[in-house]
UniProtKB/TrEMBL annotation, chain A:
Organism encoding this protein: Cyprinus carpio (Common carp)
GO MF terms, alphabetically ordered: threonine-type endopeptidase activity
General function of this protein: Component of the proteasome, a multicatalytic proteinase complex which is characterized by its ability to cleave peptides with Arg, Phe, Tyr, Leu, and Glu adjacent to the leaving group at neutral or slightly basic pH. The proteasome has an ATP-dependent proteolytic activity.
Keyword entries, A-Z: Cytoplasm, Hydrolase, Nucleus, Protease, Proteasome, Threonine protease
Name of protein: Proteasome subunit beta
PANTHER family to which the protein is assigned, alphabetical: ATP-DEPENDENT PROTEASE SUBUNIT HSLV, METALLOPROTEASE TLDD
Assembly and binders: Component of the proteasome complex.
UniProtKB/TrEMBL annotation, chain B:
Swiss-Prot/TrEMBL GO biological process terms: immune system process; proteolysis involved in protein catabolic process
Keyword annotations of the record: Cytoplasm, Hydrolase, Immunity, Nucleus, Protease, Proteasome, Threonine protease, Zymogen
Principal location: cytoplasm
Annotated catalytic residues: T34 (nucleophile)
Function: The proteasome is a multicatalytic proteinase complex which is characterized by its ability to cleave peptides with Arg, Phe, Tyr, Leu, and Glu adjacent to the leaving group at neutral or slightly basic pH. The proteasome has an ATP-dependent proteolytic activity. This subunit is involved in antigen processing to generate class I binding peptides.
Subcellular location per the Swiss-Prot or TrEMBL entry: Cytoplasm; Nucleus
Complex formation: The 26S proteasome consists of a 20S proteasome core and two 19S regulatory subunits. The 20S proteasome core is composed of 28 subunits that are arranged in four stacked rings, resulting in a barrel-shaped structure. The two end rings are each formed by seven alpha subunits, and the two central rings are each formed by seven beta subunits. The catalytic chamber with the active sites is on the inside of the barrel. Component of the immunoproteasome, where it displaces the equivalent housekeeping subunit PSMB6.
Protein name: Proteasome subunit beta
Catalytic activity: Cleavage of peptide bonds with very broad specificity
Family assignment from sequence similarity: Belongs to the peptidase T1B family.
Signal sequence, renumbered to the chain: none
């Protein structure tokens, strides 16, 4: 379909992808698929990890040009750890998101990557921030991104409830990613989820054969 | 279109915004950028559509009826260029009516779908039309056929189309169950169309529904303030 032409303009490896983050009662879940593609028909990696840890309780997930995203997250990780040492306390999620935003906004001509930053901090608890392509920063209770996200807007709008339990939130994220991977041919592989709470960070992987199946499969 | 003043292409930089003299809608074709849907159930079909027709950024008609009768128990949902789909629907209505008189019995839904397909495929270079054909006949009961841009035709138990359909694939995939009742299909269609209308700028207005069965056609309209509500408002 013509709507996919924008991805052929992204240079090199692109994470045509599906990413999401959702707040639940006590934490956030950040999740993604695991496919990296070049153009629309070559899968350059089946098992890429798009969930980057930028600090103990703060993760980012990336969509767009993989090269740009890796460069920005590397820079952000460095700046954030420096900031954290200066402040002598764990950084705020908003600080991490602001660093990403500064980098994206000041380099908007060259970069082609969008980010979701999610995590937990002492001040405001679980939070999710979206930094979009041009460098806008927005806080949301849940968010979806990447090429596969168009197919699940209806599903997440219908199914999201504020203050879900951990199990409900995991089910919600897994279902949403599975549905997107089922319709978007540049998203696929396994589902990576990271659950961030005050106490711990837990990485959950749902392999292809354990994904939820829907009526026509 | 207005031709007195010269219009500059957007690649040429101008001192003033000359192109602001020409509102967007004078240059754009009328399009039913839209969300359409049809679901089969045992005994008939439920069809639904939004009601927005746009010319660029202007909503030319906010109460459009995109559910067009082709025969007594066969309707089609139209998406794409309004002119193209109206012309195709008129032509198929004529052809099907003639065929039905020759046969001296009610036409099959598959016949109507084939007529749409033949026209959409033959003139595929000139047309921009995505059509869902649905109805009831005595041989196979309720059927939904989709004829997307390009001119292929396939039967599906549930089909969505138009610009807003991308946003509801996930919802439709997860919520559809085979063997739903008529009321469940109506609720499913209304919810799916509402979700698409919330996200797609080219879809909106009211939800128009039609149920086609052996008994005939029942039509309903769900107005904006009566649409189903979801918690993310």
């Amino acid at each position: 379909m013509d709507s996919h032409h924008s991805y052929s303009q992204v240079k090199g490896v692109s994470t045509g992808t599906t990413i999401l983050a959702v707040k639940f009662n006590g934490g956030v879940i950040i999740g993604s698929d695991s496919r990296a593609s070049m153009g629309e028909s070559y899968v350059s990696s089946k098992t890429i990890n798009k969930l980057i840890q930028v600090h103990d309780r703060i993760f980012c997930c990336i969509a767009g040009s993989l090269a740009d995203a890796q460069a920005v997250t590397k820079m952000a990780k460095f700046q954030l750890s420096f900031h954290s040492i200066q402040m002598e306390s764990p950084p705020l999620v908003k600080a991490a998101a602001s660093i990403m935003r500064e980098l994206c906004y000041n380099n908007k001509e060259e970069l082609q990557a969008g980010f979701i930053t999610a995590g937990w901090d002492r001040k405001k608890g679980p939070q999710i921030y979206v930094v979009s392509l041009g460098g806008m920063l927005l806080s949301q209770p849940f968010t979806i991104g990447g090429s596969g996200s168009t197919y699940i807007y209806g599903y997440v709008d219908a199914k999201f409830k504020p203050d879900m339990s951990l199990e409900e939130a995991i089910q919600f994220s897994t279902n949403a990613l599975a549905l997107a991977m089922g319709r978007d041919n540049v998203s696929g592989g396994v589902v990576h989820l990271v659950v961030i709470t005050e106490a711990e960070v837990k990485h959950v992987v749902v392999p292809g054969n354990k994904l939820p199946k829907f009526h026509d499969e | 279109m207005a031709t007195m003043l010269q219009k500059f292409p957007s690649s040429v930089s101008t001192l003033n915004d000359y192109n602001a003299l020409y509102p967007d809608w004078t240059q754009r074709e009328v399009s039913t950028g839209t969300t359409i849907m049809a679901v089969e159930f045992d005994g008939g079909v439920v069809m639904g559509a939004d009601s927005r027709t746009t010319t660029g950024a202007y909503i030319a008609n906010r109460v459009t009826d995109k559910l067009t009768p082709i025969h007594e128990r066969i309707f089609c949902c139209r998406s794409g260029s309004a002119a193209d789909t109206q012309a195709i629907a008129d032509a198929v209505t004529y052809q099907l009516g003639f065929h039905s008189i020759e046969l001296d019995e009610a036409p099959l839904v598959q016949t109507a779908a084939s007529l749409f397909r033949d026209m959409c495929y033959r003139y595929r270079e000139e047309l921009m039309a995505g059509i869902i054909v649905a109805g009831w006949d005595r041989r196979r009961g309720g059927q939904v056929y989709t004829v997307p841009v390009g001119g292929m035709m396939t039967r599906q138990p549930v089909s969505v189309g138009g610009s807003g359909s991308s946003y509801i694939y996930g919802f439709v995939d997860s919520n559809y169950k085979p063997a739903m009742s008529k009321e469940e299909c109506l609720k499913f269609t209304a919810e799916a169309l509402t979700l698409a209308m919330e996200r797609d700028g080219s879809s909106g207005g009211v939800v128009r529904l039609a149920v086609i069965s052996e008994q005939g056609v029942e039509r309903q309209v769900i107005l904006g303030n009566q649409l189903p509500k979801f918690s993310t408002v």
